[in-house]
Write a sequence for this structure.
């Protein structure tokens, strides 16, 4: 289940939007990320081809089991890392930005060690 950072960001965004919106559409993703709708459309095509999402005829985007698994993993990483950075004194906005970068590059071993410390 290898994905690139861009795909992970899109999947996490769909996951987060799905928690607050009744349905997620490409325009919602574009607005959330500040991207052009055409860029989001290309990304959705790629995610569909990898079977991480499904898109209805009405344009509603849903995570598949594999997409949801990746999204939840990235979302959890973001939450744990942002919380940990905030607790060590990093301002919340910077902690969230840094967590967004770190969530994609940390090895499982390093993340799990940080998670153990963060949840103590």
């Amino acid at each position: 289940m290898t994905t690139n950072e861009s795909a992970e960001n899109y999947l996490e965004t769909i996951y987060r939007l799905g928690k607050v919106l009744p349905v997620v559409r490409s325009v919602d993703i574009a607005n959330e990320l500040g991207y052009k709708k055409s860029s989001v459309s290309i990304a959705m095509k790629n995610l569909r081809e990898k079977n991480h999402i499904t898109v209805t005829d009405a344009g509603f985007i849903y995570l598949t089991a594999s997409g949801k698994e990746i999204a939840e993993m990235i979302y959890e990483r973001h939450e744990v890392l942002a919380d940990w950075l905030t607790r060590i004194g990093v301002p919340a906005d910077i902690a969230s930005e840094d967590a967004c970068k770190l969530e994609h590059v940390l090895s499982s071993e390093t993340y799990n060690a940080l998670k153990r410390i963060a949840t103590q």
